[in-house]
Known about the structure:
Elements: E1 2-4, E2 13-17, E3 20-24, E4 47-52, E5 57-61, H1 64-78, H2 80-91, H3 95-98, H4 103-111, H5 114-120, H6 127-146, H7 162-187, E6 200-206, E7 217-225, E8 233-239, E9 242-248, E10 257-259, E11 263-269, E12 275-281, E13 291-294, E14 297-300, E15 302-310, E16 314-322, E17 328-332, E18 335-341, H8 351-358, H9 362-370, E19 377-383, E20 388-393, E21 409-410, E22 429-431, E23 437-439, H10 461-464, H11 484-494, H12 501-508, H13 516-530, H14 538-549, H15 559-575, H16 577-587, H17 590-593, H18 605-626, H19 633-636, E24 637-641, E25 644-647, E26 664-669, E27 675-681, E28 684-688, E29 694-698, H20 714-718, E30 726-727, H21 732-735, E31 739-745
Helix pairs in contact: 1-2, 1-6, 2-7, 5-7, 8-9, 13-18, 14-15, 15-16, 15-18
Amino acid sequence: MNTRILINFSTTALIQIGAICLFCTSNASRVTASAELPGTGRDKGKTVVYRDTWGVPHIYAPTTEEGLFAMGWAQAEDRPEELLKNMLRGMGELASVEGPTALDNDKIALMWDLYKGSKALADRVTREVRVHVQAFVRGINSYYENHPRDIPSWWTGRRVDEFMVMAYSRLFLQSYSFDQGLRDLQRGGIDPGIQPVSRGSNQFVIAPNRTALAAPILLGDMHLPYDGPFRFWELRIHAGGLHGSGFTLPGIPYIGIGHNGYVAWAMTTGGPDAADVYELRLDKDGPNPDRYLYDGQWKKLRRREYVVNIKGIGKKLIRFYDSHYGPLAGLRNRKGYAIRSSYADAVDVLAPLYEFNLAKSYKDLDKGLALQQLFPHNFMAADNSGNIYYQRTGRVPKRPDGYDWSKPVDGSTSRTEWLGIHPTSDLLQATNPSQGYMQNCNVPPDAMMENSPFVLRRTRPYIFADASQQSFWGYGTRDGWTNSRGARVVELLSADSQITVQKVIDTANDIRPFGARDFVEALLAAHDVFGTPHLTNPDYVQGIQELRAWNFELSAISTAALKYSFWRRQLIVDIGGEHMKNLSRRIELPHEETRQVKTSISLNRNEQVQLIESFKKGMAKMRLKYGTLDRTYGDVFRVGRGESSWPCDGGMSESLGLTTVRSVQYGPEHPDLTCWARAGQTSTTIAVLTMPIQSWSCVPMGQSDRPNSPHFCDQAEKLFSRRQMKRTWWTPGELVEHIESRELIVVH
Length: 748
């Protein structure tokens, strides 16, 4: 072990417009198993986009630039409106289309001047990356030129440029650091007027000696909203030296998470602290400060103003004041609060992805991380030489000792200035740990595996974790806890030394809340002692009987799972959030479970009676709402798009004890009393590091945003609702039997 704390197209057409010659095969000419392999024969040396039977594009091109051109084209084809919205997001103009709900996004983009800054600092971008971005942008614009009906009215007359792509890339890849500063403000009692974004993910990697295929297996599973700026887009690409399969976002080139022919990688949120807040003494009170005190001298604040057009409201002036630390994000009592982010001038944000996409070993991935352009996060990888690797990465400032960096610090003195940036060799990382696996489902490093080598006291707290990463159970801000997803994954991985692909799929889609068995056992124990008075209540009795036979899974076909959810919701109503935390700590104990400490559950009489009373109330509410106790979990909890939905399993609510490894957050109740999935698993991908690499994937909806497309929500129906995954068919030999359409793009 080495550890360092260290379209199917209905007609055939030939279209010649500008620089593009586009040829689309009809369904009658679909490629068959006996036909030429993709990228060979008539298509050799040409740029072709083949779409498989799930609508996923497979791009074959002779050069990387032509491949990225086709990638821009295919993104616009699948997400014609959302891609352009993402450009507005990076520019801080989304409110002009989406109204006041988009103001937080625009404030962040303008606060950090992402678009103008990307223009001003463009010479810092790696040359190859800039060439690739320009090719990608040409592909986007060519698509819209050839398909003007796909251009929204609010975009007419504009063209995408490379700086829009850079700005949006920075917004996505660096906003975690910006949110760290907002949370520091909140901990200091200052309302920034901008709500930090909630993010989550799962990842794990298994060494060859613990897999049935004797090859590493890696899972990446981002948890984000199903609509908005973070909705991933899937692709395969073989273009010059660029080969891979995975996910990115509309408006961003390269593969963000996935694999190439040698390595696979994944990311989850939660990492070291990369932002701080400085409290400044202002020269005057009021909404327009002009200077602040620093080492006994007054320093000038720079004022920036933007006129934002808000749909439904009109124009609004937004003003920012910049100190040498960064922009002021709060004002109170002649004091200003400036957020300092280590990413403020980091514009080469796509360079690490470029390195990842071309990597041939985990060490090449490390080179990409060493550029220190990506947001603070957990980075996990494997290569087909058998290595597994982890780094808790980020652009981490060196801070002077003696200050609480989780809250605003004194900005009137140079004594609190940063002392540089930690090299990646200072960060927490591990290669081939003896445990044979690693997981990080948004947990601190010491909860990643049994007997984790990472211990808080061996490193600086701000390298170990940022202060905002704390658990529902309240066990400190930086160590000594885990969450239910992490605890469950450790439980599953540590118990198996012959892990198959199917077991990995099952783990990624596991629907057993970690503490469900313990809570049900506590209820049944209380019932055995105090439940006699309720035996005349048929709904109570039915509920108890079903929970007694339950397999503790939030399964779509389970009536007991729905009853369990009603009970847990009623408990928190009856006893309150703080009491529920205490009860959860004592019953579920996931933080101790990962450390193999068994603690007996001891509840007093009042607590046991409360469990029973809340269960009785929960069953009464269920009867009142549905008129029956026979509804299943999937009758209520659904996944869908447009007018169609299907039963869904799993959940995501830590406070209610309904969080599962398969993370799904449900939206508000519909008139038909159903709740539809709106966030959670967005881009699940599994890679087996054999030669060639084998991979599987799934998204919660479908590849296309077009309601008339067969791929609008086909994966929701055929995969996601069934907890299944599809083969990626990423090599030509795998793809040849599964081609639905072909687009030939000649780039001049």
